Amino acid sequence: MIRALTGFSTRNPWKVIAAWAVLGILLTVLSQTLIYRVTQTQTADFLPSSYDSAAAMKIAEDRFGTKPDANPVTVLVARSDGGTLTAADRQQIDAGAKRLSRLKVTMPTPKDAPPFQRDYSQVPQVDPAMTAPDGTFELLSANLTGNSADPGLEDTFRAFRDSTRAEFAAQGLRTGFTGALADQVDSADDGKTLATVASACAVGLIILLHILVFRSVLAALLPLIAVAFVSGVAGGAVVGTALLTGIKLDPSVPSLISVVLLGIGIDYFLFLMFRFREQLRAHPERHHRATAAEVSRKVGTAITSAALTIVAAFATLGLAGFGQFRVLGPAVAVSVLVMLLASLTLMPAVLAACGRALFWPSRALKTVPRDGAAARFADLVARRPVVMILASLALLAALAGGLAGIRMDYGLGGGPRTASRTTAAEIARALPAGVADPTSVYVETKGAGPLSPGALDGIAQGLTRVTGVGQVAKPVLSEDRQAARIDLFLTADSQSQQARDLVSGPIRAAVAQSTPAGLSAHVGGTPAVFADVSAAVDHDLRLVFPVAAALIGVILLLLLRSLLAPVVLMISVGLGFAATLGAAALLFQHTMGKPGVNFTLPLVLFLFVVALGTDYNILISDRIREEMEHPGPPRAAVARALRHTAPAIATAGLVLAGSFAGLAVTPQPSTQQIGFATALGILLSAFLLSIVLVPALAALLGRSLWWPLRPGRPTGPPATQHRADAPQAPAWGHAPQAPAWEHAPQAPAWGHAPQAPAWGHAPQAPASSQWAAQPQADAFPHSPNPYAPHDETGANPSSTPRGHH
Q: Would you say 443 and 519 are in contact if contact means Cβ atoms under 8 Å apart?
C-alpha cells in the first residue's frame, strides 16, 4: 500500500498536488461554515446522565424550558457619579429593561464572514433581578441564545452591549456586564493582538529552523503551505465525521487539532526532506523522481508507524466517560489519518515536482559535510553511558519532584483582569459572590401529585443552615407544578475550588437529608458541574492511562521484536511524563500560586508526550538495532545511529515544541499550562530521552537490549578479510575504505536517517544493492578509535593513515 501510494504520487506529482489543493480549499470552506453546528459549549452536556448535575440540567430543560445553548448575562446599572440610586433612577432602569426586551439585536456581518454564516439576531429577554443592599446599583438579567464559541454570537453580544450602554447612558447611568459570555468576549478582545503575535512567532520559528537546516527559502515555505492545505482537509473530515455520527465537539478541539497537525505535519516533511537531500547528494546521476519514490517508500514506513501510534493512543479516549475526552479521541485520530495520507501522497509529490530546486540556493548537494556537533556528542554518549544515564535520571527526578502535593484545577477563572471580572468584583462587594451565577437545586415529584411551596420548606431551611450559602431564594414552581427550582447564592466564587467543595459536600448532604419522601432533588449550576467533572476525570484517568500504556507497549513489541527494549522505552517515556507534569506543577501551582494544574493537563500530556515521545524513541531504537546487526562493538553501533538520527529528532522536536509554545502566551490560564507543559514534554522527549537516555542505555546494555533475539553477533571471518573486498571510495569523497561492518547497508526499516550539513554529518550508504559502491566513513574518523574493529594482529583499522589499507 505504501509503495503504491508513494509510487503513484511521484509519477504524477502535479495531479496529486492539484487534487490536494482543490480538496483543501473546498473542505476549509466547509469546516469554517459548519464547525459551530457540531460544537457544544455547555460542560454539563458532556457529563454522563448518571451524574447529579446532569440530572439537574435535564429537569431544567424539560420542566423550566431552559435552553441548552442559553448564555446568561448579568447587567449592572449604576449612577455615573457613584451615588445611591434614586426612585427616579429605578423607574428609568425598569423602563429601559422593558425597551431592551422589545428591541431586536441584529448580528453584525463582518466582511470576512464565512459563507452560510448562522444569523444570531434575536430579541433578548431583559428582566430586573435585584438591587444592592446599599442601593448603589441594580442588576438586570438577560439571555442570549446560541453557540458561545461562534464569533457570530460574540458579535451579537457586542451589539447588545453597545445598545444597552447607549440606552442607559442617555439617562446618566453607567453599565457593566458579566457572565461567561461577557468574560469570553472581553478576553478575546484583550488577547487578540497577543494571539496574533504568538501565531506569527510560531510560524517564524518554523521557517527560521528550516532555513538554518536546509539553507533554502523554498524548503522553508513549502512545508507550511502543504500543511495548511492538509489542515483544511482534516478540518473538513472532522466536521463531516461529526455530522454523520451526530457527535458534538468541544470548542477547543479545532484549535488543538490545528496545532497538532502543524507540528506533526512539519515533522513528517522534515523526515522526508532530510533523507531526500541525503540521497540526492549520494546519487547525483539519478533522476530526482526516482530518488523521491525510493525515499518516500522508506520514510513512509516510519511515518505510518508514527502516525498509527498517535491514532492508537487517542483511540483509548473512546473508553472515557467524560464527553470532552471521548470526542477528542476520534477528532484527533481522523486528523492524524488525513495527515498520514498526505505524507504518503502530497509530500512525495512535492519532492518529485521540485527535485533539486527544493534546496536552492544551498550548495549542500555538491559538498560532503564534515563531522560536527552531532558526531562529537554521539561519541560522548557511547563512551560515557553511565554518566549520561545518571545525569538524565537526576534531571528527570528533580522535575518529577513537583508532583508532591499536586492538585487538579477545575475552575475557569484566573485569567487576565477584564471588564467583566471588574464588574463581577463590584457585585461581590455588595452581594454574595454567587449572585451572578447561582447554584440551583431542582426538585421533582415521583408521581406524587403536584408540588406545593410548603413541601419545599424543609429543603430551603436545611440549605440556609449550610455555612457558605449567602442567600436562599424563594422556590419557583414549574408550569405543571411537577418540579421546583431553589436558587442558592454562595459566598464563594462559583468557579472556585471552595464553591466546588461546598456543593459536593455540605450542600448535597443537606439536600439528601431534607428531601421528603416521594421527591427527588438534584444540585446543578457551575460548581456542581465541575465537582462532577472532577469525579468523571478521576475515573477516566484511572481507565485510560493503563489501557493506552498497554496498547503502546504492544505496538513497541511488534515493531521492535524484543521483550526488553519495549520495557526500557516505556519506562523512559513514563519518566518523561512524570517530569513534565511535575515541572508544570512546580511552575504554576508551587511557584505562581495557582489553585492547581488544569484538570485536562495529565491526560493531554500523557497522550501527546507519551505518543510523540515514543515515536522519537522508536526512531532512534530502530536505527540502533539496525546498526547492531552489523559485526562490531555495540557502542560503535550506538554512536553511528545517534550521529545520523539526532539531527532529524532535534529539528522535529524543536518544530513541534515551537508549535505548542505559541499556546503558552495566550490569555487563558488553562491553555497556557497545556502549551507550556506540552512544549516542555516534547523537548524532554526529543533531547533528553531519545538523544541521551535511550542511546546511553543501549550502549550500556549492548545487544542484550534486544533479548531474546540479539542482532549482529560478531561471528565469521576477521574484519581484515572483509576489508580486502571492500568497495573503493568515490572520487568525490576521497574517503578511506571502512571495515566490513561499516560497509553494511545503513538504511533502517524506518527510513529515518536524514542528515544536514548544519549538523556536520558524513553521508551514509543506503541499503539498496545498487548503491553498494558508495562506502561510508568510519564512525570515529579520528584515531585512535576505541570502538573500531581490530584485525587478528590487534591493529586498529581506523588508525591506518588516510588512503592506505
A: yes
Torsion angle (degrees, nearest 10) of CA 502, 503, 509, 514: 110
At 330, give phi and psi (nearest 5°). Answer: -60, -35
Q: Please, which residues bridge with residue 476 across strands? A: 485
Work out the burial of residue 551: count CB atoms within 10 Å of its CB; fewer than 13 is exposed, 13-18 middle, 19 or more buried: middle
What is the per-residue pLDDT across 652-670, written as a single tens digit (0 to 9) for each? 888 778 877 777 766 666 7
How far lies 579's CA from each of 280, 393, 693, in Å? Answer: 40, 10, 14
Task: For residue 76, list its beta bridge partners.
Answer: 139, 176
Report the C-alpha gap between 513 and 503 in whole angstroms. Answer: 14
Q: Is the peptide bond before 124 cis (omega within 30 degrees of 0)?
A: no
pTM of this prediction?
0.72
- Total residues belonging to the chain: 805
Buried/exposed code over 439-457 (b: 16+ C-beta within 10 A; e: otherwise): bbbbbbbeeeeebeeebbe
Span 396-433, pLDDT tens digits: 999 999 888 888 777 655 556 788 888 988 888 888 87
Only one residue has cell 515541572, namely 583
- Rounded to an integer, what distance in angstroms lies between the CA atom of residue 20 and that of residue 22? 5
280-284, 299-303, 542-546, 770-774: lowest mean pLDDT where?
A: 770-774
Task: Report how far residue 384's alpha carbon sits from residue 697's, in angstroms, rounded to the nearest whole number.
Answer: 11
CA separation (Å) from 573 to 225, 381, 715? 32, 19, 34
CA distances from 647 to 207, 209, 431, 742, 761 (A): 17, 12, 60, 21, 9
CA nearest to 525, candidates 487, 475, 468: 487
pLDDT tens for 130-179 read 888 889 999 999 989 888 878 888 899 999 999 999 999 988 899 999 88
Question: What is the rounded CA–CA span in Å between residue 658 and residue 206?
Answer: 7
pLDDT value, residue 696: 93
Q: What is the pLDDT of residue 793?
A: 33
DSSP per residue, 511-572: HHHHPPTTEEEEEESHHHHHHHHHHHHHHHHHHHHHHHHHHHHHHHHHHH--SHHHHHHHHH
3-state class of 148 per DSSP?
coil
With the CA atoms of 388, 389, 395 and 399 taken in that order, what torsion angle do they form, in degrees rounded to the nearest 10? 150
